[in-house]
Amino acid sequence: MKNKVIFDTDPGIDDAMAILFAHASGKIDLLGITTVFGNASIENATRNALYLKQRFAIATTVCVGADTPLVVPAGEPTTFVHGQNGLGDIDLPDTLPIKADSRSACDFIIETVRNNPNEVTLVAVGRLTNLALAIQKAPDIADLVKEVVVMGGAFGHNGHTGNVSPYAEANIIGDPHAADIVFTQKWPVTVVGLDVTQQSIMSNAYIQTLREQSAKYGEFIYQISRFYSDFHKQSAGLDGFYVHDSSAVAYVLAPELFKVKQGPIRVVCEGPAIGMALCKTTEKAFPVDGWQQQPKQQICVDVDSQALLNLYYNTLCS
Question: Tell me: the pLDDT tens digits for 208-234?
Fold first, then answer.
């Protein structure tokens, strides 16, 4: 049985790499790609999703999602990480012969989940605005979603905290109110945060080998990742880059590669720690406790990084 997946994304270089990972696996039925503002403007994110669909013959629906967070200001797309066009400033066509579906991302998620009860995994690797809008509009889908897998957050494991502030990760701080809504629903959530994504690094040598060995995907991944690799060299001194969004796909394909902890999750929505995600792993009740009545979710706290890198490589080179 293939995993039925809706991929909620803001492509984005690592988003594109994750989409191709899912497409190449043969174990994921990609029901839809829903776009959200973040790494790129909503226009560029949607164009990039459609470009990937066309170039790699991905049989999926693309729907346009939210272009602004629920409460906080939208801010600017992170072009300093992903380039002006979101895909490392590679040459892209001005127009495409295919268009996005007429349904909004929110409505597509609701309709698809209702039509496939307890079968759809929502993989969200950007801001969680679309998922929050969907669950607010149709609370019944909380009982119908198989799992929500989120790339975002940082809980302090393996020494990893924030990458935008000392405590906040980009996807969560981008719409903290949406994240808090998503994490506190009764659908099962697994958060694949910086705790594990920054444990795995695709070196430039790894990407060069992928370029040579993956006839279908290698050259494209090499080209889009040059900008991304340069950013990581300048910002973190890396020879390569962290494996963020593809780690969420790896969790769907091989959850046994990850160690997890359980507990309710909340997100700080104001003040200097805005965007900080916190998981309560103790059963003790406190006098002031905004976690106690919330459902237990999962956070990933460790990963077999070499096995993850092997899985990605073997999937794209098979």
Answer: 999 999 999 999 999 999 999 999 999
Q: What are phi and psi of 201, to 5 degrees?
A: -130, 125
Nearest-Å Rg of the Cα atoms of the chain is: 18
Instruction: Answer yes or no: is pLDDT of 1 > 90.
Output: no
Tokens of 219: 């050259």
C-alpha 106/C-alpha 103 separation (Å) is 8
DSSP assignment letter at 14? H
Q: Which of 10, 14, 15, 180 is catalytic?
A: 10
C-alpha to C-alpha distance for 102 and 84, rounded to whole angstroms: 26
* Distances in whole angstroms, Cα of residue 98 to Cα of each of 101, 138, 156, 181: 10, 29, 43, 33
pLDDT confidence band for 94 (50 / 70 / 90): confident
Which two three-digit tokens encode residue 183? 């994490």
Residue 185 in tokens: 């629903």
Pairing outcome for strands 61-63 and 240-242: unpaired
Helices in the chain by DSSP H: which ranges? 13-25, 42-55, 79-82, 105-115, 129-137, 170-174, 176-183, 194-197, 204-213, 218-236, 245-253, 305-317
Residue in 8, 157, 244, 245 annotated catalytic: 244
10 assigned to active site: yes
The tens digit of pLDDT for each residue in 177-220 reads: 999 999 999 999 999 999 999 999 999 999 999 999 999 999 99
CA angle 183, 32, 224 (to 5 degrees): 90
| C-beta separation of 316 from 219 below 8 A | no
Q: What's the pLDDT at 223? A: 98
Burial level of 60, CB count in 10 A (0-12/13-18/19+)?
buried
Q: Is the dihedral of CA 111, 116, 117, 118 positive or negative?
A: negative
